[in-house]
Design a protein that fits this description.
Number of strands: 8
Low-confidence stretches: 16-32, 295-302
CATH class of the largest domain: Alpha Beta
Distance between the termini: 92 Å
Structural class: alpha/beta
CATH superfamily of the largest domain: Alpha/Beta hydrolase fold, catalytic domain
Oligomer: single chain
Strand order of the largest sheet: 1-2-4-3-5-6-7-8
Order of helices and strands: HHEEEHHEHEHEHHEHEHHH
CATH architecture of the largest domain: 3-Layer(aba) Sandwich
Radius of gyration: 22 Å
Mean pLDDT: 89
């Protein structure tokens, strides 16, 4: 009898402990956001003496936040992040004075991330591009040269923006970009996360990324007829050891960018889906190449 009471007591303690642990894990998960507030951004870049301006606009009741870094008299480079992420992904470049002397950098929170309606997924690449259209129009209306740069999932969004605006985009940098339908790895846990019984437990940031992931092949198939409309200079940086977004994505895009003004594919041996951390210097050099006029590049090489 005494043994049974001890066993029941132990089981109650174990159940309560498990419930407390799950509650704690859920509480922590809901605070995984990977985004930087307006106040934090302003404070950071004021301390660095770098000009930064925070903006928002609306499209079809969706809010999009973007931030300008550097002088507004320079050509524009719009940086589009992957998933899960936010404009904070490119933070190291917003502080790069070598870049800021040549181009104004613009970081944007893609729909569903950062402060662009955080948590509200947009799984259509065409819709994502439409929500970013006012950003491109803003600088095109000023007669400024616009370069697009993107990582991972953001590459598909940038590609669609360029397809829609061949006369407004002068250059594109694709970094580890997902461009070929089906040529990427999907973790088994993605299907667990998608379960209606379990979604509540995972971070909002991860849910948005997962919604995009599981819809990605169809979303990419929907934009494949537009590659021939891209007429800008293009640089593709991709790790040959990328086990998430396979190197075949870069090869696929290279074959279809038949009307690009110029095209350079840079395969990185032994590098995975980590170019931002492994080779930030190469990203910087590629951006400078895209924003610097040919004559200046030739003079610099003499």
């Amino acid at each position: 009898m005494k043994y049974n009471k001890l066993k029941a007591s132990w089981m109650r303690w174990l159940l309560v402990s498990l419930m407390v642990l799950l509650a704690a894990l859920w509480w922590m998960a809901q605070r995984v956001e990977y985004r930087t507030s307006d106040e934090e951004l302003s404070s950071r870049f004021t301390s660095l003496a770098i000009i930064s301006k925070i903006h928002r606009y609306q499209v079809e009741k969706r809010t999009v936040r973007f931030v300008e870094f550097g002088a507004d008299s320079l050509p524009v480079t719009i940086l589009v992040h992957g998933a899960p992420s936010s404009l904070s992904f490119f933070s190291r470049f917003y502080e790069d004075t070598a870049l800021l002397r040549r181009t104004m950098l613009v970081g944007v929170d893609r729909p569903g991330y950062g402060y662009s309606d955080f948590g509200q997924s947009v799984t259509s690449i065409s819709d994502q591009a439409r929500y970013l259209q006012p950003l491109l129009d803003r600088y095109a209306a000023q007669g400024r040269k616009v370069v697009l740069a993107a990582s991972s999932y953001g590459g598909a969004v940038v590609a669609k923006v360029a397809m829609n605006n061949p006369d407004k985009v002068s250059g594109i940098l694709f970094v580890s970009s997902s461009l070929a339908p089906g040529e990427e790895y999907t973790y088994p846990i993605s299907y667990v996360i998608d379960s209606p019984w379990l979604r509540w437990f995972f971070p909002t940031l991860l849910l948005v990324a997962n919604d995009e992931k599981l819809s990605h092949q169809k979303a990419l198939e929907d934009i494949q007829d537009g590659w021939g409309r891209i007429q800008s200079k293009v640089i593709l940086l991709h790790g040959k050891a990328d086990g998430l977004i396979y190197f075949s994505n870069a090869e696929y895009a290279k074959k279809r960018l038949v009307n690009a003004a110029s095209l350079k594919l840079v395969p990185l041996e032994g590098v995975g889906h980590t170019i931002l951390w492994d080779r930030p210097d190469l990203i910087r050099e590629s951006l400078l190449e895209l924003v610097t006029p040919q004559k200046l590049r030739e003079l610099a090489q003499q």
